[in-house]
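Quiz preparation item.
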């Protein structure tokens, strides 16, 4: 059987850049990963170091990580949907981010479409389309993957129809892909007890060929809660069984799967540890680990 493409969010620190990210992914026994090129909540970015990238590439090769499956996530503070606040900055920042991703030699950049913040859905979608048309040219070497959102506040991209509307407005359509987040679509109202139905809707409305990445997260909240709070696999309202069906879906075997589940916090709240090594283990074993919290703390403390 072919191996599942599975990884998690990892850090990208100034000192080691991509090399540090690869090492972290390997420590989780992952064969792909996703990172922000700096802190997700700000736009301070350092220049990409080509030497470190080269070393990272070598290490990926040695460990069977195919770079085409590696994902970058754009900082979530850039909002393309509202043109009354920092709109020009968001556009120019995204242009620079695309250049950084190109320099890193990575193919896919995940982006939250944005929140209209009072402008209304129609104007918000228009703003997103305008911004993407500023950013994507025929020379762009990176795909922007629009992430499906939970519909928290005035978030756009909360259903497949909105994603499709954005794609329809973008001139460089072949450079727009989609990242499906299981927690987000559940919180937006899609019932993951029938994933095949969701997948055929996705195919009909957007097209399965557009699906470039899946964020695999459980949800702390019930369906249609519009909350966007991720939970560890099998500890939330989606459930391990439903997530496994997605992870091993035959139509999605070439799509990288990325965990963005929360760190495990110790009882005294003084430390928190990544759950990914153990979540990847339970995915590969296809068996839920009811001792995840204890196992993670024992391993890292
Ligand atoms: Fe995201
Ligand atoms: Fe996500
Ligand atoms: Zn989320």
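Solution:
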């Amino acid at each position: 059987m072919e191996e599942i493409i599975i990884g998690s969010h990892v850090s990208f620190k100034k000192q080691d850049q991509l090399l540090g990210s690869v090492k972290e992914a390997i420590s989780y026994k992952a064969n792909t990963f996703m990172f922000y090129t700096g802190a997700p909540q700000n736009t301070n970015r350092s220049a990409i170091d080509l030497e470190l990238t080269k070393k990272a590439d070598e290490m990926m090769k040695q460990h069977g990580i195919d770079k085409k499956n590696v994902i970058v996530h754009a900082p979530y503070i850039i909002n393309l949907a509202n043109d009354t606040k920092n709109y020009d900055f968001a556009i120019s920042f995204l242009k620079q981010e695309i250049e950084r991703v190109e320099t890193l030699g990575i193919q896919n950049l995940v982006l939250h479409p944005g929140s209209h913040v009072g402008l209304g859905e129609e104007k918000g979608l228009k703003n997103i389309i305008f911004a993407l048309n500023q950013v994507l040219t025929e020379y762009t070497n990176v795909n922007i993957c629009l992430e499906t959102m939970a519909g928290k506040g005035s978030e756009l991209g909360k259903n497949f129809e909105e994603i499709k509307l954005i794609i329809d407005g973008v001139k460089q359509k072949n450079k727009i892909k989609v990242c499906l987040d299981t927690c987000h679509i559940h919180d937006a109202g899609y019932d993951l007890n029938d994933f095949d139905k969701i997948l055929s809707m996705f195919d009909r409305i957007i097209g399965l060929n557009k699906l470039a990445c899946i964020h695999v997260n459980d949800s702390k909240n019930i369906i249609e809660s519009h909350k966007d709070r991720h939970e560890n696999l099998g500890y939330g309202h989606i459930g391990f069984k439903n997530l496994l069906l997605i992870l091993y879906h035959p139509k999605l075997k070439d799509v990288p799967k990325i965990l963005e589940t929360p760190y495990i916090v110790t009882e005294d709240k003084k430390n928190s540890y990544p759950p990914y090594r153990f979540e990847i283990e339970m995915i590969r074993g296809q068996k839920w680990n009811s001792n995840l919290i204890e196992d993670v703390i024992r391993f890292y403390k």
